[in-house]
UniProtKB/TrEMBL annotation:
Residues 468-526 are annotated as: Disordered. Pathway: Metabolic intermediate biosynthesis; (R)-mevalonate biosynthesis; (R)-mevalonate from acetyl-CoA: step 2/3. CoA binds at residues 228, 276, 280. Residues 20-193 form the Hydroxymethylglutaryl-coenzyme A synthase N-terminal domain. InterPro entries: HMG_CoA_synt_AS, HMG_CoA_synt_C_dom, HMG_CoA_synth_N, HMG_CoA_synthase_euk, Thiolase-like. It comes from the Eukaryota. Catalyzes the condensation of acetyl-CoA with acetoacetyl-CoA to form HMG-CoA. It catalyses: acetoacetyl-CoA + acetyl-CoA + H2O = (3S)-3-hydroxy-3-methylglutaryl-CoA + CoA + H(+). GO terms for biological process: acetyl-CoA metabolic process; cholesterol biosynthetic process; farnesyl diphosphate biosynthetic process, mevalonate pathway. This is Hydroxymethylglutaryl-CoA synthase. Keywords: Cholesterol biosynthesis, Cholesterol metabolism, Lipid biosynthesis, Lipid metabolism, Steroid biosynthesis, Steroid metabolism, Sterol biosynthesis, Sterol metabolism, Transferase. It comes from Alosa alosa.
Length: 526
């Protein structure tokens, strides 16, 4: 039984009462982005397209990418170990681990099973969850599963860990600048600083071939660009309508008599294939509010001058330039207040696929103080082609005091801009060479990667070799820039002291001034 003193956000009640866990949500969040990027303005010149096509038309400034030294397994190992180290957590305090990804390098073996290498020294193999896949929606499905587990009779009092990771690459052409790469890890439990609004999820699922990956030997998708935008916007309309109906019903039960609108979200974050689509999506939600309002004021205020669009049908407006322009203008101030800051990672690193929307969430947290975030409601729209989508909301805790869970979460992400700035810029020619190398080698057996390990951030896991049976081996670059930390299929012989699990002692999250180098890793550590 856990003592009540010094309790952590994810610990079970001291009394062991069979109560519904309160404020289940995200306790800690870690973002990993590759160490190299290409400037989109330079890529425009390299590709021979008009200036501004990528930077203004798509709203993208930089695009992160991986060499052949990194794959989906290494990305996820890196972000998981960083989250565990930066929060001083032992691996035996994790009871569920689920990975959301669409980067498939094995049609049978899960990324989650590879991540279990990190748990070996703790001896913890009692960890539920596997991989979840549907384009960019897999991370959200994994997050919902984690929240549902904590709120279920299956919960054993430990944390859940959710990992979303992908390498988004495209064939040469117009879609290539919408790529990116990265991973996000989220620690889930009760009494969280970012708590899910219970019962408020609006979901829409439908069959469409807007974006899919039918070629089992290629990393590249088949994309119908126009259909993909239509599916995204139609899913947004439907999810918002369902969410609005659910919150109206909830308010009615509580005796609250008001109409829900975008004004009720303090922040609104979206899955971001590219930044311009996000800006159009916020405008889309304003259109939805306008059309659903029984008597909007078009003489003054937010809907001023929009009377001409009163009778449009949403399904006829996906590519209507007049509607788009009018509502982009009307929602301009709202975009600046509620959404623009969420695009930091997306603008600077590109589309990470499953982690995209959670990179947007991290971007908001990184650029706000605990006091600015306390008590705020954050709307989240997640979309995955094929297609699956949900709009849900998160409530930020009211407790913004120094040392609080929110304070620690904000502090852990406060260096996000510095991390982005610390990456190395490479030329479009070098980027193209890396893409060509990935294209030719990502499926090979008996292969040793050619990319430089020295270009990786300290503490990054990387691929060392793929043997003749396609078994992958990994090492971790030292935190101190010295020799790599050998691992992968090599058994560790070094034992590191871990903070015990909640069943023995409540793990602690470090003070707000804690940095990334909290745990000293010896050679051979997992």
């Amino acid at each position: 039984m856990i003592a009540r003193s010094n309790r952590m956000p994810g610990s079970v009640p001291a009394s062991g009462e069979a109560t519904w866990p309160k404020d289940v949500g995200v306790i800690a969040l870690e973002v990993y982005m590759p160490s190299q990027y290409v400037e989109q303005s330079e890529l425009e010149q390299f590709d021979g397209v008009s200036a501004g096509k990528y930077t203004i038309g798509l709203g993208q400034a930089r695009m992160g990418f991986c060499s052949d030294r990194e794959d989906i397994n290494s990305l996820c190992m890196t972000v998981v170990q960083r989250l565990m180290e930066r929060n001083c957590l032992s691996y035996d305090c994790i009871g569920r681990l689920e990975v959301g990804t669409e980067t498939i390098i094995d049609k049978s073996k899960s990324v989650k099973s590879v991540l279990m290498q990190l748990f070996e020294e703790s001896g913890n193999t009692d960890v539920e969850g596997i991989d979840t896949t549907n384009a960019c929606y897999g991370g959200t499905a994994a997050l919902f599963n984690a929240v549902n587990w904590v709120e279920s009779s299956s919960w054993d009092g430990r944390y859940a860990l959710v990992v979303a990771g992908d390498i988004a690459v495209y064939a040469t052409g117009g879609a290539r600048p919408t790529g990116g790469a990265g991973a996000v890890a989220m620690l889930v439990g009760p009494n969280a600083p970012l708590a899910f609004d219970r019962g408020l999820r609006g979901t829409h699922m439908q069959h469409a071939y807007d974006f899919y990956k039918p070629d089992m030997v290629s990393e590249y998708p088949v994309v119908d660009g126009k259909l993909s935008i239509q599916c995204y916007l139609s899913a947004l309309d439907r999810c918002y309508s369902v969410y609005r109906n659910k919150i109206h019903a909830q308010w009615q039960r509580e005796g609250v008599d008001k109409r829900f609108s975008l004004a009720d979200f303090d922040y609104m974050v979206f899955h971001s294939p590219y930044c311009k689509l996000v800006q159009k999506s916020l405008a889309r939600l304003l259109l939805d509010d306008f059309l659903s309002h029984p008597n909007p004021n078009t003489e003054s205020g937010l809907y001023s001058g929009l009377e001409a669009f009163r009778d449009v049908k949403p399904e006829d407006t996906y590519f209507d330039r007049d509607v788009e322009k009018a509502f982009l203008k009307a929602s301009g101030e709202m975009f600046e207040q509620k959404t623009k800051d969420s695009l930091l990672v997306s603008n600077q690193n590109g589309n990470m696929y499953t982690p995209s929307v959670y990179g947007c969430l991290a971007s908001v947290i990184a650029q706000r103080t605990p006091q600015q975030l306390a008590g705020q409601r954050i709307g989240v729209f997640s979309y995955g082609s094929g297609f699956a989508a949900t709009l849900y909301s998160i409530r930020v805790t009211q407790d913004a005091t120094p040392g609080s869970a929110l304070d620690k979460l904000v502090a852990s992400l406060s260096d996000l801009q510095a991390r982005l700035d610390s990456r190395k810029k490479v030329s479009p020619a070098v980027f193209a060479e890396n893409m060509k190398l990935r294209e030719e080698t990502h499926h090979l057996a008996s292969y040793t990667p050619q990319g430089s390990v020295d270009e990786l951030f300290p503490g990054t896991w990387y691929l060392t070799h793929v043997d003749e049976k396609h078994r992958r081996q990994y090492s971790r670059r030292s935190q101190s820039d010295d020799t790599p930390l050998e691992a992968g299929l090599v058994n560790s012989t070094t034992k590191t002291e871990h903070i015990p699990s909640p069943a023995k002692k409540v793990p602690r999250i470090p003070a707000s001034n804690a940095g990334p180098g909290l745990v000293t890793i010896s050679n051979g550590d997992h």
